[in-house]
Amino acid sequence: MASTSTKKWWKNAIVYQIYPRSFCDSNGDGIGDISGIISKLHYLKELGIDAIWLSPVYRSPGYDNGYDISDYKDINPEFGTMEDMERLISRAKRLGIKIIMDLVINHTSDEHEWFQKALAGDDKYRDYYYFREGVGSSYPNNWGSFFGGRAWSKTEKGDYYLHLFSKKQPDLNWQNPEVFDEITDIMRFWLDKGVAGFRCDVINIIYKESLENGKKRFALTGKEHYLNTDGCHELLKRFNEEVWSKYKTFIVGETVFVTPDDAKLLSDENRKELDAVFFFEHMDVDNYGIKWFKKGFKPSRLIKILDKWQTALEVPANYLENHDQIRSVNHFGNVGKYWEKSAKLLCGLNLSLRGVPFIYEGEEIGMTNGDFKGLRELKDIESYNINQSLKKMLLVHSIRRKLILQTTRDNARTPVQWDASDNAGFTTGIPWLKINANKSFINVETELRDDNSILNFYKSMIEFRKNSEALQDGNYRRVASPSDVYIFTRESTHERLYIYCNLTNFNKAVEFYGDNIAFSNYEESERENFFLKPYEFRVVVSNI
């Protein structure tokens, strides 16, 4: 059994997310794998990260790229073997890098042994899921799916099962104590192998308090019956008490539709539930409540939201992109004239905020959205489901194509660009997803040779953060400034820093605080009449 020490190693950690299919392919089958990750561990160590969040590598039919798990205690053969996984954990540990597994426990794959036994009529396993009879000629209730359409599918026997995501992902029944026992056994299995914690997928919707009809709304009818329920809080406390507290874990939850007050309840250290949560409000600054319907991005909205969450939470989990979101330089920056400057700015912003920063694979070289030409080039099941829903809304193909290509999750899933070769150094075979043509200049090899590259800026900024008392443990306070310029302080006992972020294409006049410039994404360090250039990031030291 692992030590019961409660040392919070993760509070000063920098976490790097790996989406295994797209990171590095070692055997030429076009799919990234565990051996490919092992081959890049020294690269990650030199980057300066402390932990890897590993998206699912469990056995899976791959309908939702690993978020449909058919065996939690086995490795998907596409990624390698259990021996490969153990080797990754061991070699990462030797380099001082911890592994955080993705844990998907709202649902399983419909090919999981439990669900297959349930379909075969085994009463024990039927109660692991939600099987219900229809109401008249209709569904058991009016709930909607996150992937579009209804949240129920009919079985061959004529009854229905619940799935808040795709029909290939039936929801687990957490009111059944045997489900708790099964999943906690899985947690111990991986923690005993040496992983350092879990990123818990959509963790705040796992407990359904009832299956009553929901209030009708444009999307996700029924969520009031499963969002942030009391039953969910009780489950998290039991996970913590019976499993997580017995190990030196970091448990971060993906939490949908949370307010700051919701997040406080989920991550308050005294409540002993999650250590930190991912919130999504800043991801929605450019849409009308549904990510597929865009509106113009305004930096002032992003700044206001980040400030709210920085103030609300003790330890926010900070990120600007991940496997479910478009690339941050497309989202919040400028992929044209100011691609490099805005990528560096976003790096500086993420690594200056209070909390635990997460970097997504390829973010450190400024990777951009995929350059897909049509829907047939996509692999993401969510995109296909949304396309069908948009068809039902009678939207013509050209509009559906535009909406989906600018927002599809595949934008962040294109293979990592390691060099400028045909397949970007990702594979010797045919890549599972189209590689962006801008690999010719956006790639690791090229940027390693350029002292002023985005990659080397990340290395420098990470080193700066690790050596800064204020960025490690300091307080946060926003400073008055133009609405589209983010200025805030990080202050500890012995250090005060002023962080400047100009999130616009324009020069911005600002008040200059402090004594000398400590870090900048511009070579010159003069005050320059107190204005910031487009997408300029500066850290100014002030005497205390």
TrEMBL record:
Q: Record's Pfam families?
A: Alpha-amylase (PF00128)
Q: Where is the Glycosyl hydrolase family 13 catalytic domain?
A: 17-413
Gene3D superfamilies, alphabetically?
Answer: Glycosidases, Golgi alpha-mannosidase II, Oligo-1,6-glucosidase, Domain 2
Q: Name one GO biological process term.
A: oligosaccharide catabolic process
Q: Which keywords are on file for this protein?
A: Glycosidase, Hydrolase
The terms under GO molecular function for this entry are: alpha-amylase activity
Q: What SMART domains does the annotation carry?
A: Aamy
Q: PANTHER family from the entry?
A: ALPHA-AMYLASE FAMILY MEMBER (PTHR10357), NEUTRAL AND BASIC AMINO ACID TRANSPORT PROTEIN RBAT (PTHR10357:SF179)
Q: Which family does it belong to?
A: Belongs to the glycosyl hydrolase 13 family.
What is the protein's given name?
A: Oligo-1,6-glucosidase
Protein source organism: Pseudobutyrivibrio ruminis
